Amino acid sequence: MLEIDNNIRERTILVGVGSRYAPRDDSGEYGHLDEIALLADTAGADVVGVLVQPRSKIVPAYYIGKGKAEELKEEVELAEANMVIFDNDLTPAQLSNLEKLLEIKVVDRSGLILDIFALRARTRQAKAQVELAQLQYLLPRLTRQWTHLSRQQGGIGTRGPGETQLEVDRRRIRQRIAHLKDLLKKIDRHRETGRKRRGESFKAALVGYTNAGKSTLLNALSGAGVPVEDKLFKTLDSVTRLVRFGAAPEMLISDTVGFIRDLPHDLIASFKSTLDEVREADALLHVIDITNPEWEEQIEVVAGVLSELGV
After folding, report:
1. Which of 41, 107, 127, 285 is deepest in the core (most CB within 10 A)?
2. What CATH number did the domain enclosing 239 receive?
């Protein structure tokens, strides 16, 4: 996973694989890498190189072809990069193979998004939701490097007969996952009580792609004072405000977590209670940043996530 140090920005090379990464126009720029570049910047990394392979067939060992992997290694050395970020999701084996070949840290798209969520989490609920998603992402990728997890409660009587250290760590992660799920259920029950106390007011939820301007709109409508910034995933917790428009009946408007292409399924599952604001709304207001050149694709992404939520 990407380790964030606010004082040290990591030097990263971006990699995109697939037909979507063909040049956008004659300028030779790769438009679909704009988003992963912004994600990298949000996480605290400087982009020092870009490598694309617009191929449809994925190579099992490295995701990219062996020749392209060697080219990436040369690029890493020339740029003095200490990290590579793929705008694709990699298997545990591919991550391991790439790190052995490149001898630096490799992060895939889901891992990067999870780290940004961890960076943004402020409330008890958001922190628990992000940790749950991270542990579910890490569990199949667990290797000997995670043996520090057992030190919290090591020693005699803590492991079963014949268990390896790796098995102990996996068991401890599963125990932590179970604890976080129970905690989120308790928080969800508390939030449900709060929702019932709101009465029968008309409820609207702002939905949209991350950084589309939902919080800015909520502030304009209600004076909510929600912090805004030109960064991805600034808002993780739902914020609800009472709004009155002249003589019209009062209504409740909720700002919700933004969506993004290929949002990790573990995040969608762990943020279920937060996204209940969307499920229970009487109306959804889809906020779209029309200045983004990919706004039409973003509309499709939001519609897809809403469909996955059963809205």
Report:
1. 107
2. 3.40.50.300
pLDDT tens column, 196-216: 666 678 899 999 998 899 989
Question: What is d(CA 101, CA 269) in angstroms, rounded to the nearest whole number?
Answer: 34
Q: Where are the alpha helices (DSSP H) in 46-160?
A: 66-79, 92-102, 109-120, 124-138
Beta strand 239-243 with 251-255 is: antiparallel
3-state secondary structure of 16: strand
Locus of tokens 């609800």: 240
| Contacts of residue 72, Cβ cutoff 8 Å, sequence gap at least 6 | 13, 15, 51, 64, 84, 102
Instruction: Note the pLDDT tens digit of each residue in 145-187.
Output: 444 444 444 444 444 444 577 787 888 899 999 999 999 888 8
> In terms of DSSP bridges, do strands 105-107 and 83-86 run parallel, antiparallel, or are they unpaired?
parallel
Whole-prediction pTM value?
0.79
- Please say whether the beta carbons of 295 and 289 come within 8 A: yes
Which of 194, 210, 235 represents a domain boundary (last residue)?
194
Cα 175 to Cα 253: distance, rounded to the nearest angstrom = 37
Determine the pLDDT at residue 85. 95
